[in-house]
UniProtKB/TrEMBL annotation:
One of its GO terms (molecular function) is protein-glutamate methylesterase activity. It is an enzyme of class 3 (hydrolase). It comes from Novosphingobium taihuense. Its EC number is 3.1.1.61. This is protein-glutamate methylesterase. PANTHER family: PROTEIN-GLUTAMATE METHYLESTERASE/PROTEIN-GLUTAMINE GLUTAMINASE, PROTEIN-GLUTAMATE METHYLESTERASE_PROTEIN-GLUTAMINE GLUTAMINASE. The active site is at S14, H41, D134.
Length: 191
């Protein structure tokens, strides 16, 4: 799998997500040739404050995902609070109010598993810092579909539980620091 076959990036994060995403996303170039879909665990009664926070700091467009919206290159899509974010077979985005998964809605596994089905070997799946096991099964689905599975180095994560759980289920995943993840994603521009 090489950079030039990547069609989309899906990222999951929980505890420590703000700091991790503030490290990665503002460094990505506006010419990023793929969409980036992100699930961060946000309480159902709160708005996702990451969108306005990151929109002012990023060269990429940053927005909350809308149901049936096509996923466009150079755009970061966040799951709205209290909705699962999924990817349809045609690459468009879908929102679901289905039951929580791993006690979370949105759930990282839901995004990663649906994106793995939609993009197969063209998907980069990334599990960042977090304090539960959400994302582990989804990352395994990414790897099984031929995509690139990346885990934040648990030693560098604010909360190591989630990346460690992902590595336990997906032991062949690439382990990267935030700088390594940023460099990998930036390299997609030159593919």
């Amino acid at each position: 799998m090489n950079h030039d076959t990547v069609r989309a990036v899906a990222i999951g994060a929980s505890a420590g997500a703000v700091q991790a995403l503030l490290h990665i996303l503002p460094s990505l170039p506006a010419a990023l040739p793929v969409p980036v879909m992100i699930v961060v665990h946000v309480p159902a009664d709160r708005d996702n404050t990451l969108v306005p926070l990151l929109d002012t700091r990023c060269q990429l467009a940053v927005k909350e995902a809308e149901d049936k919206e096509p996923a466009m290159p150079g755009t970061v899509y966040f799951a709205p609070s209290d909705y699962h974010l999924l990817v349809e077979k045609d690459g468009s985005l879908a929102l679901s109010g289905d039951e929580p998964v791993n006690y979370s809605r949105p759930a990282i596994d839901v995004l990663l598993e649906s994106a793995a089905e939609a993009f197969g070997s063209g998907l980069v799946g990334i599990v960042l810092t977090g304090a539960n096991h959400d994302g582990a099964a989804g990352l395994r689905a990414v790897a099984a579909g031929g995509g690139i599975a990346i885990v934040q180095d648990p030693a560098s994560a604010m909360s190591a539980t989630m990346p460690a759980a992902a590595l336990a289920l997906c032991p062949d995943a690439r382990v990267e620091t935030l700088d390594g993840i940023t460099a990998f994603l930036s390299g997609l521009v030159h593919a």
